[in-house]
Amino acid sequence: MKRVGANVVEELYQGPGGAGRVELYRFAYTPLPGGSPLEATLTGGDSGGPAFVREPDGWRLRGINTYVHSTQGQRGGGGGVAVAAYREWILSASGRE
Fold it and tell me: pLDDT by residue (tens digit) across 21-52?
């Protein structure tokens, strides 16, 4: 089953040492009636799935979904690992340096 949603990243987290490299992201999810009908959240089995960002020249893979979070049952969302933080390793491991 294919599920899609449109969420807003609400926080970006830098890696240890504050080198300026964003390593994690977190997005918000507000259920209806207060949220947008386009919003979605992660559920079991979604870890490892892609997080895309629409840019002027098309869709780009920007993250890998890894977790869900909730706040008092009213809001929640999820987040994951920012792909750009590991670009060099990905290219090296895939032989595409």
Answer: 788 888 888 877 877 888 888 877 888 889 99
75 SS3 class: strand
Contact 64, 82 (CB under 8 A): no
User: Which tokens is 39 given?
Assistant: 């919003």
- Domain boundaries, given as residue ranges, for the chain: 9-93
Rg (CA), the chain: 15
Say what the pTM is: 0.74
Query: Using CA of residue 11, residue 17, residue 20, residue 24, what is the dihedral sign?
Result: negative
Q: Answer whether CATH 1.20.140 is correct for domain 9-93.
A: no
Pairing of strands 50-55, 75-82: unpaired
Quote the CA–CA distance of 1 and 46 in Å, as a whole number. 11
Q: Dump pLDDT digits (tens) for 56-68.
A: 999 999 999 998 8
